[in-house]
Amino acid sequence: MIPRRRIWLVPALLLTAIIVPFLIWGDAFESLLSMDAMRVLFEKNLRFAWLIGIALLVADLFLPIPSTVVMSSLGWLYGPLTGGLIASTGLFFSAYLAYQLSRHLGRRLAVRLAGEESLTAAVEWFSQAGGPCIAISRCLPVLSEAIACLAGLSGFPQRQFLTAALFGSVPTGFVFAYIGHMGRKDSTAAIALSAIIPVLLWFLYRRISSTKARQKI
Description:
By secondary structure, this protein is mainly alpha-helical. Helix content is 82%, strand content 0%. It has nine helices and no strands. It has helices at 9-32, 35-44, 49-59, 67-78, 80-114, 116-137, 143-153, 158-182, 188-216. α2 packs across α4 (67-78).
């Protein structure tokens, strides 16, 4: 029988696959996509700056893109509302892509590495804690991609995933866009705020869903 602890092979490999590019190319990307460089890039491509911003946030799934710089630059260019909407869209599609790729392409590999029993255990764990983890992870580098992939591998319900990803992406996108609009560089408060709000939204959503379910009985 395959021990359930082998399920941790999957997130360990996911984190390794995500962290290694940061270690190899992280400094280069931070230099190439600094705040000043990002603003120059957007100014030179004003017509498609919004699309470039979304593409960069989605590419963060595969490359060490400084997503907070991208979101802040969108807020600087478009303002806190439009910039926040664009940033939120990019974060959401990044999560959705990670989920779908892992759900349809990665499950067979995960079964080989960890075993079907371990994936079943992951499903049980995600059914309890997956929502808050997905929501709060959208403001965290590296972990956001890893948890979205784990959600797909474990078969976490798509509707719940999309809800949690939305609750995490929207506050994060708008907070960092606001910071970029105000010209502030300290993101400590932003990370704290964009971590608390998604969790509160998720628990509110679950409470409302549970209430509606009881009323139908």
